[in-house]
């Protein structure tokens, strides 16, 4: 398993009491599969993603990323693990206005200490994978909303993560562009072998999933893993 949550409980202060955001959640995400975590607003989806990303430490339970348990890790060690093994696609692309599409990706590699020439080659490869090779020299204001989200996805893959975490990637897109982004994520997951978790309240995205997890009031109420589709049927 590339991502495993076992018995995870997370609470937040709520006046004199504590509010339970996640209640004994267990979830296995095999490599090369897309898990869609569905549920209404306030159900615990974002908390699950934050715990999986090691951005938040749970009260109890274990989180294992690519075979490494995060229990007892220092903040610096968790940061290193995220940089090495976890890609995060935020709800809003938050691209840097002054940088071109290819430069958005190069920055990620440079932070990780990679050589500029090698970083550019990797960035161009990923932009081609998301269908944006021809837009590599364009800045965010020259790209459509769907194109900006594709740059966001490519940027998250820049350091070749084993785990990809995606937060409501279609919330600012229309149905057609949103469906294209979901299809792209499914294809990249299968091609690159990432353990991908996508949280959404839009149930139309469930058909793209290899595994569907339902979250309600902080509890994982249902989790079904579908048999992998034949390679010829995958995009």
Question: Can you characterise this structure?
Answer:
This protein has one domain (3-228): 3-Layer(aba) Sandwich (Rossmann fold). With 235 residues, the chain is an alpha/beta fold. The protein has helices spanning 45-52, 75-85, 101-111, 116-129, 145-156, 175-192; strands at 3-14, 17-29, 33-38, 60-65, 68-69, 86-89, 163-167, 195-200, 211-216, 219-225. Helix content is 31%, strand content 29%. The strands form two sheets. A six-stranded mixed beta sheet has the order 6-7-8-3-9-10. A four-stranded antiparallel beta sheet has the order 2-1-4-5. This is ABC transporter ATP-binding protein. Residues 3-235 form the ABC transporter domain. Keywords: ATP-binding, Nucleotide-binding, Transport. GO terms for molecular function: ATP binding; ATP hydrolysis activity; transmembrane transporter activity.
Quick structural overview:
With 235 residues, the protein is an alpha/beta fold. The protein is built from 6 helices and 10 strands; from the N terminus they run E-E-E-H-E-E-H-E-H-H-H-E-H-E-E-E.
Give descriptors for this structure.
single chain; 235 residues; alpha/beta; Rossmann fold; six-stranded mixed β-sheet; four-stranded antiparallel β-sheet; 10 strands; 29% strand
List the helices and strands and how they pair.
Elements: E1 3-14, E2 17-29, E3 33-38, H1 45-52, E4 60-65, E5 68-69, H2 75-85, E6 86-89, H3 101-111, H4 116-129, H5 145-156, E7 163-167, H6 175-192, E8 195-200, E9 211-216, E10 219-225
Parallel strand pairs: 3-8, 3-9, 6-7, 7-8
Antiparallel strand pairs: 1-2, 1-4, 4-5, 9-10
Helix pairs in contact: 3-4, 3-5, 4-5, 5-6
């Amino acid at each position: 398993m590339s991502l495993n949550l076992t018995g995870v409980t997370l609470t937040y202060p709520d006046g004199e009491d504590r509010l339970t955001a996640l209640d004994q959640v267990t979830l296995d995400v095999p490599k090369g599969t897309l898990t869609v975590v569905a549920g209404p607003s306030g159900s615990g989806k974002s908390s699950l993603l934050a715990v999986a990303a090691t951005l938040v430490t749970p009260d109890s339970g274990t989180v294992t990323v690519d075979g490494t348990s995060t229990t007892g890790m220092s903040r610096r060690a968790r940061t290193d693990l995220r940089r090495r093994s976890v890609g995060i696609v935020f709800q809003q692309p938050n691209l840097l206005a002054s940088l071109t599409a290819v430069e958005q990706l190069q920055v990620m590699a440079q932070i990780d200490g990679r050589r500029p020439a090698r970083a550019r080659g990797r960035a161009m490869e990923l932009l081609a994978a998301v269908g944006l090779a021809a837009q590599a020299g364009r800045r965010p204001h020259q790209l459509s909303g769907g194109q900006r989200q594709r740059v966001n996805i490519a940027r998250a893959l820049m350091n070749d993560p084993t785990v990809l975490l995606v937060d409501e990637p279609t919330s600012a897109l229309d149905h057609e562009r949103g469906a294209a982004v979901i299809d792209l994520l499914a294809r990249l997951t299968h091609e690159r072998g990432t353990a991908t978790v996508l949280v959404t309240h839009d149930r139309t995205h469930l058909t793209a999933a290899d595994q569907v997890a339902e979250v309600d009031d902080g509890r994982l109420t249902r989790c079904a893993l579908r048999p992998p589709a034949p390679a010829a049927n995958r995009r």
